[in-house]
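DM from R.C. (forwarded with permission)

"hey, sorry to bug you on a friday — could you get me a structure for this? deadline for the figure draft is monday and I only need the backbone to look sensible"
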Amino acid sequence: MKLFGHPLHLVFVHFPAALFPMDFICSLLFRYSGLPSFADASFYALCGGVTAGWIAVIFGTFDLLGVMEKHRDAVKKALLHGGINTAVILVYSLLAYAQYKQVPWADGMGILVLKGLALAGMVIGNFMGGNLILKHRVAVENG
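My reply, with the result:
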């Protein structure tokens, strides 16, 4: 399925890549300023990133079928890429739930560290996804 000429998951993958860093920055600003508007912005960015991330995971799963059919040499990389990104989305989903339920530990320094680690995981997973597109021509027309 395509949207604006691109495979649908390639459209949705950009939202978590932008919203999760925004969540992290707003969480830092809230932690050090105490302004509740930063906590709200962090939560909304987190929820938007999680929603778009799960949509990207669903469509990426369908793309995996194409990788298995057309790009057999890239299957291991595609599985690793998908596994990393799914784990990152799962971590962020749990963080969103904790923040929604206002669990007392959801605003601590440990959460900022966990968000930073999840963000690093997302960068690694997205780098691998870019490699699949550029090197193996996965999800590229005539590729």
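R.C.: lifesaver. The chain has one domain: 17-134.
me: no worries. The CA atoms of residues 11 and 101 lie 30 Å apart.
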